[in-house]
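Is this the right way to post structure tokens for a design question? Let me know if I should format differently. Anyway, here goes:
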């Protein structure tokens, strides 16, 4: 059995080595911060009558490789909308802050609205062999099955990814937490090119009109633009039955640390 990104010790989340970030070995990966906000909000405020419609996480400080605490606060509890804030701290210092918007599920209204055509791609089972993604000399974080445009290419990219491990030991990934952990993939997928990834994202925003039904999350880069060292990237998200939402990031130019 693979190790989780964190183990729970009382009120703290203690990171495993696999949670280290790609920019600095003494920092945490952005994907686990998004996951912790989603995980904590879902545990405290989850309600099957509501859809997790938006998750936004601001990563305003490099999160150290250290135990974390997550605090949440109910901002608004209405009949159709709920808003919850979450803050991640290390040694009493805030390193990230996020918010979750939950909307009450109801019947679809009458009429027709334009939507993009269905995603016509091969399912993961038809794309083999799988490629395992991760930093050199480290266990992989996730599994990728590429569809179009590999990392390092200058073309639109599409791929399936699947998580390989729980976020917190002993606690299985729920659909919301699964896609929350994955959504940070929009930065390397949308903002990398023939010179690799040279932007570190300052935030990630996940929009969902429904939850994924299985383990595979499809990513399709739909936009990337950059000027003066600031980039904005966007990916459309899918599961094996169709569209589920969008992931967007803003990022700033960053040189990767070596050694």
């Amino acid at each position: 059995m693979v190790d989780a990104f964190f183990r729970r010790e009382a009120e703290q989340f203690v990171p495993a080595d696999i949670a280290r970030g790609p920019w600095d070995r003494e920092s945490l990966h952005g994907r686990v911060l998004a996951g912790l906000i989603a995980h904590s909000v879902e545990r405290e405020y989850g309600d099957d009558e509501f859809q997790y419609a938006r998750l936004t996480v601001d990563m305003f400080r490099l999160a150290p490789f250290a135990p974390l605490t997550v605090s949440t606060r109910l901002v608004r509890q209405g009949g159709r909308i709920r808003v919850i804030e979450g803050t991640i701290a290390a040694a009493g210092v805030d390193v990230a802050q996020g918010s979750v918007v939950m909307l009450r599920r109801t019947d679809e209204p009458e009429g027709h609205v334009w939507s993009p055509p269905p995603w016509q791609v091969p399912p993961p089972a038809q794309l083999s062999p799988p490629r395992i993604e991760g930093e050199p000399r480290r266990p992989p974080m996730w599994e990728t099955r590429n569809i179009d445009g590999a990392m390092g290419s200058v073309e639109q990219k599409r791929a399936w990814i699947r998580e390989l491990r729980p976020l917190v030991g002993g606690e299985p990934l729920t659909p919301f937490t699964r896609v929350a952990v994955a959504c940070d993939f929009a930065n390397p997928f949308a903002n990398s090119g023939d010179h690799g990834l040279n932007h570190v994202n300052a935030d990630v925003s996940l929009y969902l009109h429904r939850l994924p039904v299985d383990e595979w999350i499809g990513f399709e880069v739909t936009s990337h633009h950059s000027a003066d060292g600031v980039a904005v990237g966007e990916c459309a998200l899918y599961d094996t039955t169709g569209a589920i939402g969008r992931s967007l990031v803003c990022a700033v130019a960053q040189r990767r640390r070596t050694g």
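Format looks fine. Someone answered above. Worth noting: DSSP finds three helices and 16 strands in the chain. Residues 41 and 136 are 33 Å apart (CA to CA).
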